[in-house]
Task: inverse folding
């Protein structure tokens, strides 16, 4: 009973601390998101439709109210392009989790894992013949594991996503160069790239689609491209965005700049491949030393060792 009471107190205190910390963490972001949603541009028709009729009910028929409610729900997608000031928010953004409740669910998953594994370890240690010191160490280790495991999973997903974006960037850049050199504007070229790469490279197509939506929503192209680099966390995409911004600022040819940047990116990919090939000899040392060499030693020196053992034991060798 004492162990159960201690476990209940530990769970309740952890839940209170987690709820308080989550509320404090998400309060500034929630206030900023609400303020930005209130400041979003509206048309004259939307302004008239938002005025309630006499009696406090929304004006218009039921289908108009349904459309306005669906638009209000769809406007939550504008939170996708917002920057996150917290480390967990940026990590979730790089991993592709950009909904409004992503950070809250992530913190809830961490605290739930800590409570579940820590409480499970304490219960398992109390039912076994372990000493109190071992029980505390085991529960603490499992609680720390439950706290760090969701972050490790999200970080692995973020690295995989960044790797896929890095691999799909040359194709997108080549297609962008072709579209710009064919006479299309940069905004139309971004739209065309997002449409053409939707099947082969859906991740980078979605990123370019978000850039196009931000430009259509009223942001400048430089801000949208800078947000693209921060949203993905890929150095190559950030350098591409910086190059386009500098090209717009100085008024140089965007087609030539994209062509030069494409050549430089292709050279960097070749150098990165050569670097990975040069590292293989160093990485093969540990598998050779711990896996292949022991098997070779047993195969080659095993019969000789058995023969020497028979000689030293005074037995007649065969």
Result:
């Amino acid at each position: 009973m004492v162990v159960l009471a201690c476990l209940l107190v530990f769970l309740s205190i952890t839940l209170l601390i987690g709820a308080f910390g989550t509320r404090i963490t998400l309060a500034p972001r929630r206030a900023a998101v609400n303020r930005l949603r209130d400041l979003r541009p509206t048309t004259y028709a939307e302004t008239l439709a938002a005025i309630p009729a006499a009696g406090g009910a929304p004006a218009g028929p039921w289908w108009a109210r349904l459309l306005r409610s669906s638009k209000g729900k769809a406007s939550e997608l504008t939170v996708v392009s917002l920057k996150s000031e917290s480390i967990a928010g940026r990590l979730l953004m790089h991993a592709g989790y950009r909904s409004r409740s992503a950070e809250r669910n992530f913190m809830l998953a961490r605290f739930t894992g800590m409570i579940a594994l820590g409480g499970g370890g304490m219960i398992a240690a109390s039912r076994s013949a372990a000493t109190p010191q071992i029980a505390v160490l085991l529960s603490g280790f499992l609680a720390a594991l439950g706290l760090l495991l969701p972050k490790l999973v999200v970080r692995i997903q973020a690295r995989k996503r960044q790797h896929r974006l890095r691999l799909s960037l040359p194709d997108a850049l080549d297609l962008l160069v072709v579209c710009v050199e064919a006479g299309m504007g940069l905004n139309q070229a971004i739209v065309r790239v997002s449409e053409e790469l939707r099947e082969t490279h859906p991740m980078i197509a979605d990123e370019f689609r978000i850039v196009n939506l931000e430009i259509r929503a009223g942001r400048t192209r430089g801000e949208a491209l800078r947000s693209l680099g921060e949203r993905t966390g890929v150095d190559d995409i950030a350098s591409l965005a910086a190059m386009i911004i500098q090209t717009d600022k100085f008024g140089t040819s965007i087609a030539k700049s994209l062509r030069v940047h494409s050549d430089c990116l292709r050279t960097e990919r070749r150098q990165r491949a050569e670097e990975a090939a040069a590292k293989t000899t160093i990485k093969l040392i540990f598998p050779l030393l711990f896996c292949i060499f022991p098997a070779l030693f047993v195969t080659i020196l095993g019969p000789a060792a058995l023969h020497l053992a028979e000689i030293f034991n005074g037995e007649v060798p065969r």
